[in-house]
Amino acid sequence: MPKPAEVTLPNDRDVCVTRTFNAPRQLVWDAHVRPDLVRQWQGYDGWDMPVCDMDVRVGGSYKWLWRNLEDGQQFGFFGTFTAVDEPSTLVHEQFFDPGNAGFAMPVGDPCIVSLALREDNGITTLLCTMTFASKEAREDAVSTGMAEGMEHSYTRLDELCLGAA
Questions:
Q1: 38 contacts 52 by C-beta, under 8 angstroms
Q2: SS3 state of residue 160
Q3: Is 161 left (phi over 0), alpha (psi -120 to 50) or beta?
Q4: Backbone phi, then psi, for 70, in 5-degree steps?
Q5: Which pLDDT band holds residue 135 (cuts at 50, 70, 90)?
Q6: What span, in angstroms and rounded, lies between the C-alpha atoms of 83 and 31?
Q7: What is the DSSP string of 134-145?
Q8: Phi first, then psi: what are they for 139, rounded to 5°?
Q9: What's the Cα-to-Cα distance from 68 to each of 35, 50, 56, 144, 152, rounded to whole Å?
Q10: pLDDT digit string (tens) for 51-88?
Q11: d(Cα 42, Cα 99) in Å, to the nearest integer?
Q12: Is 57 helix (H, G, I), strand (E, B) or coil?
């Protein structure tokens, strides 16, 4: 079983997440770029993802929207891909859409999300660096429980990888 995500704050604006998956890099890549797979692992139990639009190419855009199945609250993210090098590198701007969920995440300036995937003997290591516009924006995002949410989703990605094996 992979170890939980390791989260570090190397400077005032960045959050770095390192996580391994017992899966080939191509599968982990596909899980990040194919909407039918993204819907299976991103998010929380009790939420669905009615919008998962992804045009994965440099200059292409994406929009993700989650909806709470119990009370209908919604939130999401959207942005533009700035680097795509399958199956190793994906970089995109990420803007927060607060919807009506009331989460205290920064809006306005984008967070730059850089995803790097490396594979060694069937184990894929993911390094995700999120660069926020300011220290305050980073602290607001971290205070939402972002790291715990990412690990929850990565655990679901582990299950997806097991099902694909």
A1: yes
A2: helix
A3: alpha
A4: -85, -45
A5: very high
A6: 17
A7: SHHHHHHHHHTT
A8: -65, -40
A9: 19, 10, 26, 17, 16
A10: 999 999 999 999 999 999 999 999 999 999 999 999 99
A11: 17
A12: coil
Cα distances (angstroms) measured from residue 41 to each of 7, 79, 129, 151, 157? 19, 20, 19, 11, 5
22 neighbors 41 (Cβ within 8 angstroms): no
pTM of the predicted structure, to 2 decimals: 0.92
**Does an H or E element contain 89, and which?**
strand 89-97
Return the amino acid letter for 46.
G
Contact 160, 21 (CB under 8 A): no
Find all residues with CB under 8 Å of 29, minimum gap 6, and list them.
86, 87, 88, 90, 117
d(CA 162, CA 99): 33
Q: How many residues does the chain have?
A: 165
